[in-house]
Amino acid sequence: MLFPLYKTDKVLSTFTSIKLGGRASYFFRANNLWSLRLALKKAKLKGIPVLIIGEGSNLVISDDGFDGLVIKLELRGIKIIKSEKACRVRAAAGENWDAFVKKLITNSFGGLECLSGIPGSVGASPIQNIGAYGQEVASCIESVECLDRKSLELVKLSHDECRFNYRSSIFKKDLTGLVITHVNYYFDKEYIPEIIYPQLRVDLEQKGIHIISCSIKALESIRASVLALRIKKGMVIGAKDSYLPSVGSFFVNPILTNSEYAELKKRCLSLGIKEEVPFFEIGKGKTNKKKVPAAWLIENAGFSRGFSKDGVGISLKHALVLVNNGNGTTKALLSLANEIKKKLKDSYGITLKKEPVVL
Ligand SMILES: Cc1cc2nc3c(=O)[nH]c(=O)nc-3n(C[C@H](O)[C@H](O)[C@H](O)COP(=O)(O)OP(=O)(O)OC[C@H]3O[C@@H](n4cnc5c(N)ncnc54)[C@H](O)[C@@H]3O)c2cc1C
User: Fold this and answer.
1) CATH code, 307
2) Which of 57, 145, 167, 169 is catalytic?
């Protein structure tokens, strides 16, 4: 049967990386555009709210579940178009992100190798403009194809229309309007990887690896180093001895103007924190801003790694990662997140923003 909109008993914790979330009233796997359209249409006719999910690695769903239709996007397909100067790749939303990166590397398409090991789907990659180790997906996105939930028409957004920013895009702000069905990537043949993230540079140097081209070997070396660093930080799902269910970083690193940074330094001194407040420079000249690691702020505000409460806690590997110890609830997770948020506001005057989508 194609799509019976029958009540279901699907438990959503099975579909989220943090293994939290109650039941969905209705559940459907869409593996082609036609069935996706039909599911959206039926939900619209019945007046049922819809939640689109990819691999659930950036989602925190209420213990009460989702009283509506959950559509798991499983559209597949990767098409590579090579020309003299560049390569273009059109990938369907349901493709696994890390497998996609691996495929790009085996084709020597550079630009996204530092995003190795990030969980999730291709379709979700533009939503928060996924990024890590000095790269962001937006740098290789040419356009994004979507299905408008209201009109059920296909629309294509150019790179500029996506309004990419640090962990954000038009999709993050307007999640209800569009379902991403395909992402079109562009890879410059002249590209040479530039290793800007200090830890990654050191790791490659220690291994005696010098990146001078975009060869498969060079991209594979970067991928291997990135994966090793991610495992150390508990950022690879399923990695032995290092991973507890999470959504990765729970908060976005705050971006401060120079005067806000100076104010933060003063606050830290008055709190008796002697260490210099770390930062990464963003932008150049007058517009430059500073990205401050939220993990550093959290640890210096008194929350230690391994802290645990009501079945949830802070990862032993990384203070920015909140984990489900196996018997947690969404309520306990959000309560811990709010406790951290309040402490940081009181201590430093900084308001942390949540990175995952919370329902
Ligand atoms: C261990 C771990 C490490 C992580 N590390 C990083 C990291 O280094 N950098 C980083 O940026 N992120 C990181 N993340 C976050 C996460 O992997 C990414 O945000 C990823 O892109 C989410 O993909 P998903 O398919 O799981 O999305 P989901 O969690 O399924 O969905 C996220 C949101 O997007 C919506 N959505 C999903 N697919 C679509 C679609 N096709 N169309 C419209 N809306 C859609 C959903 O409704 C939801 O609101 C990490 C997560 C974990 C668990």
Assistant:
1) 3.90.78.10
2) 167
> Counting atoms of ligand 1 from 1, which one is nearest the CA of 167?
11
Question: Phi, psi at residue 89, to the nearest 5°?
Answer: -130, 130
Print the domain residue range for 65: 12-73
* Cβ burial, residue 83 (10 Å; 0-12/13-18/19+): exposed
Global confidence as pTM: 0.94
Mean pLDDT, residues 136-156? 96
Distance in Å, CA 121 to ligand 1 centroid:
7
Please give the Cα distance from 234 to 8 (Å, whole number).
34
Q: Which one of 45, 73, 101 terminates a domain?
A: 73
Counted domains in the chain: 3
Query: DSSP assignment of 10-31, as one string?
Result: -BGGGGSTT----BEEEEEEE-
- Closest residue by Cα to residue 51 from 164, 77, 59: 59
Q: Is 249 a catalytic residue?
A: yes
pLDDT digits (tens, 9 = 90+) for 48-64: 999 999 999 999 999 99
Q: 345: CA distance to ligand 1 center in Å?
A: 26
